Amino acid sequence: MGHGAFLSFEGIDGSGKSTQARRLADALRGKGHRVTLTREPGGSPGAEEIRRLVLEGDPDRWSPETELLLFTAARRDHLEKTIRPAVQRGEVVITDRFADSTRMYQGLTRGNLAAEVDQLHALMIGVEPDLTFLIDIPPEAGLARATARAGKEMRFEDMGLEVQRRARDGFLALATRAPGRFRVIDGNRDEAEVAAEVLALTLDWLTGR
Ligand code: ADP
Ligand code: TYD
Questions:
Q1: What pLDDT, on a 0 to 100 scale, did the predictor assign at position 69?
Q2: 135: which strand partners?
Q3: CB under 8 Å to 98, separation ≥6 — which residues?
Q4: Residue 6, ligand 2, Cβ within 6 A
């Protein structure tokens, strides 16, 4: 995509992705890198509008198919307007979730649309992050953290523990299938400890490429 870098954080709700993405952005900026910190669904004005459509309201508001189209539309806008331009400027782009979240949630846990997810990805997105941090924690811990933080974006958290459990297993399986890109991080530790490991792995990758 250009001479910058494209990093993603993945994991179940409450695993600490946003916290770690922010800490990594701050640490890299402190070392002189130019960083764009972004998130999905969202990350561009159009995609943030779609975010409200998918995350708020009744859990049955959308069919799995409609939801897949909305997430993919949001990602396409995010890629066009935010990710690609920043990577082309030579920045490190850090996104809180990307296509692995769709593979997981629309492909396996909330929908059963793995084939459609892969086809839409190939057709409309077509890129993967250079490096993906999977922040892994037990689903009970994730749900407890996410619920403690509760706001109005609870449409998915409302779906419960069993979904979180399958999502955790599914993310670990995705990591096994793409070991070159994934780094699995034990997120059930002190925030600073997790951040130190993520930073060390990122610096390793940036200098080794
Ligand atoms: P995610 O983006 O994966 O949903 P967040 O980063 O928003 O997760 O974290 C969810 C909640 O858990 C927040 O209230 C956050 O402060 C807290 N949290 C994040 N990392 C840790 C950690 N390592 N230990 C304990 N609590 C954490
Ligand atoms: P996010 O804001 O990352 O929530 P959290 O901080 O609680 O992890 O994502 C909101 C929800 O959107 C989350 O439950 C996962 C879901 N999601 C999908 O189902 N498919 C996708 O492609 C993406 C990006 C997110």
A1: 98
A2: 185
A3: 8, 10, 40, 75, 129, 132
A4: no
Ligand 1 pocket mutation pick from 94, 145, 164 by most atoms within 8 angstroms of CB = 145
Distance spanning both ends of the chain, measured CA to CA: 15
What DSSP letter does each residue of the chain carry, written as one string?
--SSEEEEEE-STTSSHHHHHHHHHHHHHHTT--EEEEESS-SSHHHHHHHHHHHSS-TTSS-HHHHHHHHHHHHHHHIIIIIHHHHHTTPEEEEES-HHHHHHIIIIIS---HHHHHHHHHHHT----SEEEEEE--HHHHHHHHHHT--S--TTGGG-HHHHHHHHHHHHHHHHH-TTTEEEEE-SS-HHHHHHHHHHHHHHHHHH-
Looking from the CA of residue 194, the nearest atom of ligand 1 is 23
pLDDT in tens, 68-84: 999 999 999 999 999 99
The pTM (predicted TM-score) of the whole model is 0.94
Taking every pair of Cα atoms in the chain, the longest distance, rounded to a whole number of angstroms, is 46
What pLDDT score does 80 carry? 98
Whether the per-residue pLDDT at 18 is higher than 90: the answer is yes
Q: Rounded to 5 degrees, what are φ and ψ at 185?
A: -115, 130
137 class by beta-carbon count within 10 Å (0-12 exposed, 13-18 middle, 19+ buried): buried
